[in-house]
Structures are given as C-alpha cells and as structure tokens.
Design goal:
Radius of gyration: 21 Å
Number of strands: 13
Order of helices and strands: EHEHEHEHEHEHEHHEHEHEHEHEHEHHH
Distance between the termini: 10 Å
Shape: globular
Helix content: 40-55%
Strand order of the largest sheet: 3-2-1-4-5-6-7
C-alpha cells in the first residue's frame, strides 16, 4: 500500500459521553488539519451520537465514517467488521476500549486483527483497573490476545496499564485547542456570561469552577466531588464570598448523584453558594468567568481541566495524586494539595486569590502547555507512532 493512501482509522470506545476523550479526539483531528493531512484520518461514528454532534460542531464532518447500528455493542462490532474490509496498511486506533462490554468484542476480533498484520494501537485515557480478580483477569486476557501497542495519557495511567501486562509504547499528554482555550484571544469577546452563569457573576462572588462528570463516590475514578462542599463551607466561615459551580454530566437515574450533592450542600449550609450545571460544548466560556478551578479527584488519569483552565488564564488547585498532580508539578507544584485536607485546600485557594506569584505561575503554565499539549505536536506524535507517512 502506497504511504500516500494510508489513513489512520479511529474507533472511539464511547459514543454518548461529552468528556475528555472526545475533546482530545477533536483536537487531534485539528492537528491533522493544521498539518494539511485532514484526509489521512477516519473516525467511525454512529448517526445521532454525541461523537457525531460534537465533531460536526467542530467542523470535522470531513473525517467521519458512519456505521449503521441500533446500539453501542452493535456499533463496535460493525465498526471492526468495516475495518477488516479496509486495506491492512491502514493503522487502527482503538480509543479507550476499557469497559467490560468491550472485552467480548475485542476477543472475537483479535484473531483476524493479529493474522492480518494490521498495526493496532490502543489509547488508554482511563486506568482500565478493576478491584475484582475476575475483572483484572478479563483485562489481562483481552489485551494479551489483542496485543495492541499501548499509548497512555500520563505516566500515572501507564503505571496501571503495566499491571495488566501490556507494554506502553508512548505517553502522550492531551492536546488543548488554543484557538478556544486562550485568555488573550478570548478577552476581547468577554461581553456577557452564559445565561445560566449570569446571576452568579452579577452577585460578585468569586467563582470556583469544577468541570467534572458527576461520579459515583468511591469508584476507581471517583471525582471526589463531596470533598468540594466542606471546602466551600470553610471559605464561607472565613468570610469569603465564593460560589462553587460544577459543570458535568449525571447519568444516574433521576440524577440521584446530583441530588445527593445538593442535599449535602444544604446540610453544610452553603446551598445558596452551590450550583450544578449541565455539560456544555462551550466550556471555554465558563472558564473565562472563573476565578479558580478546583479539582480534587484522587485517581484522575490526566486532568484535562487543568490544562484547559491554565490555557484560559485560570489558576488550578488540584489533588496531590494521579494525573492532576503529574501535570501541575511541571509549573505550579505549590497548587497541589491533599484532597482530604479541607483546611489546606481552603488555605491554598485564598493564597492563590491573593498571591502576586499566581500570575507568574500562569505564564509558566501556559508556556508548558504550548510546548507539551498543542494539537499540532500531538498529531505529529501520533503520525510518527503509527508510521502513517511511511
């Protein structure tokens, strides 16, 4: 197969979630576009899916290949069948296939993928971790049979992936679209806040922003949202006028997880300073009005909100573990805190509001992001890794 005809085929492991994996995929496509290689990437989607909607809104219809399917499992199965009909010179990127529903499909597809000789890669955006012996074994068996070249979004994620016996080929920090997430570029358009944020802005409160899906407490990738509420209560008791805004998806029945957080805020007597908003395609508009981003997830694989916020000129106080710590320590190690130490977190928020060093750390952070998290650089890494131009 002539190298000029090669395409990187991407199959996302999820199609309904508006999260970091999808945003990263869109940024990678942007990198291909900037390189003049927009025709060298093909992303499989189902019509009507969140993936389709987001990528079309991002102007990336050109790279989409539609797969007709009734449900997610059928989509994944038919996607792999479609791949088998394509020239084997086209490398395949499985994007975060880490759910237990993926394993039977991957096991069935593994023999043909292995026999064909197609270069197959798997990008781990999550830890692929299970506390149960059978769950751990299922992961080891599945990826042993598939034998993909592993890519991880942080060294923290890689430490978990190696536990399931997979070799990690590369660490690729997630890209940020600096045309969207840039405080200098966006400052001129700072005319009116989003409608559901307007009253909070007009109240004069300092806005503490936490973009995060509403997670079930104590799961492997628990976002630790309950830890935010005692911090807000502590700040209130100290006389600071702050408002905590969580933006994220809640897929629990009747949004029970969100209601639990609201009830917890009422018990802490800070419900008037606490708001949960739905996910948005325009998160950058909310960063513009945030005074600080607070993210206390203890096992976050990467922490996309960290790099997005810093790119927008917003300081970040984050947990001292996981990918959040790994990123922050590159430019602002003093913003790293123990997520369970309410006083330490509150002290750091107040210090960050008042310290003249904050602006210097933001400048350092934005420079690091330009060097390490650009869509162009990310696309170049992926092209080199998959040997797309060879």
């Amino acid at each position: 197969m002539d190298s000029k005809d090669k395409k990187l085929i991407v199959i996302p492991g999820s199609w309904l979630s508006l999260g970091g994996t999808l945003v990263t995929l869109s940024a990678m496509i942007k990198g291909f576009e900037e390189l003049g290689l927009a025709d060298r990437i093909c992303v499989l989607v189902k019509q009507g899916s969140t993936n389709e909607s987001y990528l079309i809104k991002s102007g990336q219809l050109h790279c989409l290949q539609y797969i007709q399917a009734e449900d997610h499992s059928e989509f994944l199965q038919k996607s792999l069948e479609w791949v088998h009909r394509q020239p084997v010179g086209n490398p395949l990127l499985l994007d975060n296939w880490v759910s237990k529903r993926h394993f039977p499909i991957l096991i069935r597809a593994s023999p043909q993928l292995r026999i064909s000789g197609r270069r197959t890669y798997h990008f781990f955006h999550d830890l692929a971790h299970s506390k149960k012996i059978l769950g751990h074994l299922a992961r080891r068996v599945t990826f042993a049979l598939l034998a993909p070249e592993g890519i991880c979004n942080s060294n923290f994620t890689a430490s978990y992936i190696r536990k399931i016996g997979l070799n990690v080929r590369n660490i690729m920090y997630q890209p940020v679209d600096l045309d969207k997430f840039d405080d200098f570029k966006n400052s001129e358009s700072l005319d009116s806040p989003p409608s559901n944020l307007k009253a909070i802005v007009e109240s004069g409160a300092k806005i503490i922003l936490t973009p995060s899906r509403i997670s079930k407490p104590y799961e492997v990738n628990d976002k630790n949202l309950r830890a935010l509420i005692p911090v807000l209560a502590e700040l209130k008791n100290r006389g600071h006028h702050c408002h905590l805004v969580i933006i994220g998806q809640d897929i629990s029945p009747e949004k029970k997880l969100s209601q639990d957080l609201i009830n917890f805020a009422k018990q802490a007597d800070i419900s008037e300073r606490f708001t949960i908003l739905p996910p948005t395609y325009e998160l950058e508009k909310y960063y513009r009005y945030a005074d600080i981003v607070l993210t206390l997830a203890p096992r976050e694989p990467f922490g996309r909100v960290v790099v997005e916020a810093i790119a927008c000129g917003v300081p970040v106080v984050g947990s001292n573990t996981g990918g959040i710590s790994e990123i922050l320590k590159n430019f602002a190690p003093n913003w790293v805190v123990d997520p369970e130490n309410t006083k330490q977190v509150s002290d750091m928020i107040v210090d960050t509001f008042n310290s003249p060093v904050t602006s210097q750390l933001l400048i350092k952070g934005k420079s690091w992001i330009r060097d390490e998290c650009s869509p162009l650089g990310y696309a170049k890494q992926m092209i080199d890794l998959t040997q797309l131009l060879q």
